[in-house]
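Renewal narrative, Specific Aim 1. Our central claim is that a sequence can be written position by position from structural information alone. The example that follows is taken directly from our test logs and has not been curated for this report. It begins with the structure tokens describing the chain, in the order in which they were read.
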């Protein structure tokens, strides 16, 4: 029995190394499978990354030629071109309120030069109650000068114009508000005109006129005179007495001090830089609106004071619009049919000596007021000979 037990022991002893070898083989096989799977994962991830970069690269190559000239909308597939940005509105009417209009008009390119051919234009801005009695005269004035001017008319809100499609005043009335003489509503109407005119990127000079204003020279002369000037034409005098410094309100401090207070004619001509300054102003406007009330007249002090403080060196300190204040009173003299003669019109452009580009000039005025509607007939007769159109 003892032998059998020993043989049994001998028969079972060799099975231990064989079991160990089998376990090691299984472990090695599992390790290799894991390595293969890991390698496969790494290769797959690498191929995916390369594919993504290739797709991006190919897309960039595909769109690269379009980027410099148009902006692509991936939502509606439409394009925004430079032409759509610089094309002036065909109609002066719009649906913006004043806040929206002033915000939009204050946007100006900060880069020098233009990436297109720009012909600078004169913007003629008429501040009127409604009708334009001298429209036939202005029609002759603008004739054959398309592309060199723009027209904007601010009338009372309820006024409806009836100009035909052939008229230069057709669809040139802008959205307006009621205006009270001497108060901030007058200054706001002028800002409204400037803001509408600034929407046309080609408008470079801005002339404020009334319905009683007439031109004293032909269009070509006026265009050359304005475009050739180094200065904008706005009065900014430091005037003593009750009608000058006497209108100053201490409540305007600290934005405006007495020494900075200025007075000028309501009728002006300014360049684009100063027009933008006016429409983007949020410092002086609230002060003048609250404290400059009659006998402080906004139209004679707001713009002259503000622009004198910020850009005095750019102002000629005179107006281009002649008026006759010799009769006294709050308003200048009005001229009707009997007053309009050849000798009367000839003397108006050089009614007084003045400087033009820092040199003496014989021509000081390009426009004149106030003229009654009855003056239209003699003006149309004398225009070819005296006014040059």
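The sequence written for that structure reads:
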């Amino acid at each position: 029995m003892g032998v059998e037990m020993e043989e049994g022991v001998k028969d079972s002893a060799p099975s231990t190394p064989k079991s160990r070898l089998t376990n090691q083989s299984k472990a090695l096989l599992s390790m290799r499978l894991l390595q293969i799977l890991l390698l496969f994962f790494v290769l797959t991830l690498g191929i995916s990354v390369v594919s993504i970069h290739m797709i991006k690269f190919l897309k960039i190559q595909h769109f690269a030629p379009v980027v410099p000239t148009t902006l692509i909308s991936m939502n509606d597939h439409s394009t925004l071109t430079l032409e759509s940005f610089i094309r002036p509105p065909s109609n002066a009417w719009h649906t913006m309120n004043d806040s929206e209009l002033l915000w939009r008009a204050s946007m100006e390119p900060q880069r020098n030069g233009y990436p297109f051919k720009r012909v600078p234009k004169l913007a003629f801005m008429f501040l009127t109650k409604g009708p334009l009695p001298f429209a036939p005269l202005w029609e002759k004035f603008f004739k054959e000068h398309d592309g060199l001017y723009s027209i904007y008319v601010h009338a009372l809100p309820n006024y409806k114009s009836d100009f035909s499609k052939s008229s230069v005043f057709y669809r040139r009335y802008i959205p307006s508000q009621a205006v009270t003489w001497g108060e901030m509503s007058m200054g706001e109407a002028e800002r409204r005109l400037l803001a509408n005119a600034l929407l046309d990127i080609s408008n470079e000079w801005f002339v404020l006129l009334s319905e009683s204003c007439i031109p004293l020279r032909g269009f070509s002369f006026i265009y050359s005179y304005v475009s050739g000037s180094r200065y904008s034409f706005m009065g900014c005098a430091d005037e003593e007495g009750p009608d000058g410094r006497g209108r100053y309100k201490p409540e305007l401090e600290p934005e405006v001090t007495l020494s900075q207070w200025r007075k000028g004619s309501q009728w002006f001509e300014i360049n684009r830089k100063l027009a933008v300054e006016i429409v983007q102003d949020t410092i002086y406007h609230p002060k003048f609106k609250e404290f400059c009330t009659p006998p402080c007249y906004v139209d004679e002090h707001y713009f002259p004071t503000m622009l004198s403080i910020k850009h005095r060196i750019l102002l000629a300190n005179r107006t281009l619009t002649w008026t006759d204040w010799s009769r006294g009173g709050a308003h200048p003299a009005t001229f009707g049919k009997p007053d309009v003669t050849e000798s009367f019109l000839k003397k108006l452009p050089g009614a007084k000596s003045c400087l033009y580009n820092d040199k003496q000039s014989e021509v000081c005025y390009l426009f004149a007021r106030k003229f009654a509607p009855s003056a239209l007939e003699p003006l149309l007769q004398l225009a070819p000979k005296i006014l040059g159109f």
